[in-house]
Amino acid sequence: MREDSAPIQKGAPPDDARRRAGRVEKTVDVQLALGQTALDRGEFAAALEWFRAAARGGDARALNMVGRCLEHGWGVAASPAQAAEWYRRAAAMGDAWAMFNLGDLYMRGAGVARDDAAAFDLYAESARRGNAKALNMLGLFQEDGRFAPPDPAAARALYQAAAKGGDCWGAFNLGRLLADAGDTAAALPWFDRAMAAGFPGFWRMFGEALAGHADPRLDALGRAALARVGA
User: What SUPFAM superfamilies does this protein map onto (predicted)?
Assistant: First the structure.
């Protein structure tokens, strides 16, 4: 070996292999984007085909999305049991959303036997990987006292962390705890944040929870949420 020559790293792919891998990754990104666009348009069969195509190479994000289609019946007969298998494959690869979705199945007993401990562990790992929605679910576990006496302080801290991470449910639950404690002034900014980050199904729930509240400020928020969905 010449003194100025670099040692060959065993196992390192040649440049053309790296380029091929990069093109495959970009193709999967495009397939996922097309699948999401089709999903947003309500073209469920097309969305499923794009997600299946992206999943053929074993991409964890795509595996999770095929699971979502199977769970909700988007372009295929709904099968939470099959969805669980796709989520498990993606979760084993470290996908935080697959962990969250599988945790939901365990918490509800949908397609799998209900297992709060398994759900909690999956939510905790999903949260550790940066999923703010999982923090909200951990807050619910603390508030409900599923494994220990209820801990409102711990629930509140988790809801706040979820809200700061952009989760509308975490913001709503934090506002709810504050309002229930009689601190409506502190609750209002969190309810406003929840509204801003929400979506139609969330706004309906938000409105039904607050419309008709004895506090006129909360009643007004509830009515505004229902107005967003034409209710």
Answer: HCP-like (SSF81901)
